Amino acid sequence: MIITSFPFIIIINRLPRANCKLVTIGYICTMEVNDALVDKLANLARLKFDATEKNAIKVDLQKMIQFVEKLNELDTSGVEPLLHMSDNINILRADEVKGSISRKEGLQNAAVHDEHFFKVPKVIKR
Fold it and tell me: Which residues 6+ apart lie within 8 Å of 13 measured at CB?
């Protein structure tokens, strides 16, 4: 049995909530990664697995749950939630007017063109 919490709340919400209790961050449930759980997740994700893949997925899910369990050991009581990696928001360069080439110069290397536009092969066939 593994105890997991918030990152797996999506998985837990679609599964029976036996052995679950409500806490401030989400649900904490005792979870056993078994064939029934993998079958339920495969059904929700519209995936099909053979026996070999199912065993590999069970091992991977167990490792993910153990990783989250290890993260849950950290004391984050004084840490504010992180929404962005830095405090900088929408840092863009200033717009600068720069020189451009003329239409004639732009079209001179085009394989096919008319006075104003590039001509390209039709992409969508009707």
Answer: 27
pTM, entire model? 0.42
8: number of Cβ within 10 Å? 20
Band of the pLDDT at 125, cuts 50, 70, 90?
A: confident
Question: Domain boundaries in the chain?
Answer: 2-72
Q: Which two tokens stand for residue 67?
A: 């990783």
Which tokens sit at 100? 């451009």
Give yes or no for a contact between 5 and 74, defined as CB atoms under 8 angstroms apart. no
Edge-first strand order for the sheet with 27-31 is 2-4, 27-31, 20-22
List Cβ neighbours of 34 (8 Å cut-off, separation of 6 or more). Answer: 58
CA distance 49 to 7: 24
Phi, psi of 29 (to 5 degrees): -130, 150
Q: How confident is the model at residue 21 (pLDDT cuts 50, 70, 90)?
A: very low
* 15 vs 124: CA distance, rounded Å: 45
